[in-house]
Design brief:
With 329 residues, the chain is α/β, with parallel strands linked by helices. The chain has twelve helices and ten strands. The chain has a six-stranded mixed beta sheet. The chain has a four-stranded parallel beta sheet with strand order 5-4-3-6, with helices on both faces. The radius of gyration is 19 Å and the shape is globular. Bound molecules: 4'-deoxy-4'-aminopyridoxal-5'-phosphate. Pfam families: PALP.
Length: 329
């Protein structure tokens, strides 16, 4: 049964980062989930809730709008349970994720999210419209489904508490729907309020404004494209009380962080994990870790989903060289 294989992912001590930042840094490796990302957790909770509460009949179609990973998780789980999946993905979704969606039998629609998620022809708009107009469909709606936060409140948060024997002092995670960080933060702050829960978003995404209670500027440029994180609106799946602070990072710095980390450790991290590394790199003065801290970095997926976008991209290599970073091999 697929359910029993979701979660309980390893928490690995990262010796390279621990030495670099002179504190204990642990990495929550979510790519050990069966669908190879943290999104299996939310997908399972949303799908299971829909089936248990008879929101969908046997053999029906789960519908979702996704940057890729949630869609992959829903397609995998739906296939295992004898349901179908119709996934509306953003045009920027990596080729590797599209191939995985196809391999799990999902029907895929690529959509244009360049003008936001609620406008005509966006993933969210089309997914909602499709579910409204077709029988025996269920729109899991990760942005507004309380099971998204609940999945991380019930599983990821408790795992981090147990795996660190209650010693965790910081969690740093990318923010997309906000479900992961909100569920983790809610649970951990109930254990010890002082645990710091820090989010990471791309430059010009809106969570920082929201958390600082600042108005969102009308002329805000499009946010940097870092697959899986960043938003133009605040969804119901983000709980401001669970999060202390959001750090913004640039796409280029994140790309560089991914490639520099691979050179130092041989590990291939996903794009949003690279954004977390970039946040450490650019904001470590403000983070002010002490030797006794136990810092968890949340890595939602693996670099093998971004081979063409990051690691095998001549364009990325050129961009980084042009930006005068440390020379790369
Ligand atoms: N990183 C990646 C690669 C993702 O796919 C997602 C989910 N969109 C996130 C981070 C953000 O997770 P959440 O939606 O729970 O905030």
């Amino acid at each position: 049964m697929i359910h029993s294989t979701i979660g309980n992912t390893p928490l690995r001590k990262d010796d390279y980062l621990s030495a670099k930042y002179n504190t204990t840094i642990l990495v929550k490796e979510e790519f050990h989930n069966p669908g190879k990302s943290s999104k299996d957790r939310a997908a399972w909770f949303m799908v299971e809730d829909a089936i248990r509460n008879k929101k969908i009949k046997e053999g029906g179609t789960f519908v979702e709008a996704s940057s890729g990973n949630t869609g992959i998780s829903i397609a995998l789980i739906a296939q295992e349970l004898g349901y179908k999946a119709k996934i509306f993905v953003s045009a920027s979704c990596s080729d590797e994720k599209i191939a995985l969606l196809e391999s799990y039998g999902a029907s895929i629609e690529r959509c244009d999210n360049s003008n936001g998620l609620h406008v005509f022809n966006s993933t969210q708009y089309l997914a909602q419209a499709y579910a409204a107009n077709h029988d025996n469909t269920y729109f899991t709606n990760q942005y507004y489904n309380s099971n998204n936060i609940k999945a991380h409140y019930r599983t990821t948060g408790p795992e981090l508490w147990e795996q660190t024997n209650g010693a965790v002092t910081h969690v740093i995670a990318g923010v997309g729907t906000g479900g992961s960080i909100s569920g983790i933060g809610r649970f951990l702050k109930e254990q010890r309020r002082s645990i710091k829960i820090w989010g990471v978003e791309p430059l010009n995404s809106v969570y920082t404004f929201f958390l600082n209670q600042q108005p969102i500027p009308e002329d805000l440029p499009k946010f940097d494209d870092i697959e899986g994180i960043g938003r133009t609106f605040i969804p119901g799946s983000f709980d401001r009380n669970a999060v202390d602070r959001i750090f913004q990072v640039e796409r280029l710095v994140s790309l560089h962080a991914a490639i520099a980390y691979r050179e130092s450790t041989d590990e291939l991290v996903g794009f949003s994990s690279a954004a977390v590394l970039a946040a450490l790199e650019t904001h470590s003065n403000e983070m002010k870790f002490s030797e006794d801290d136990v810092v968890v970095l949340f890595f939602p997926d693996h670099g093998d989903r971004y081979l063409h976008k990051i690691y095998h991209s001549a364009e990325v290599k050129q961009l980084i060289l042009a930006a005068n970073y440390e020379p790369l091999s």
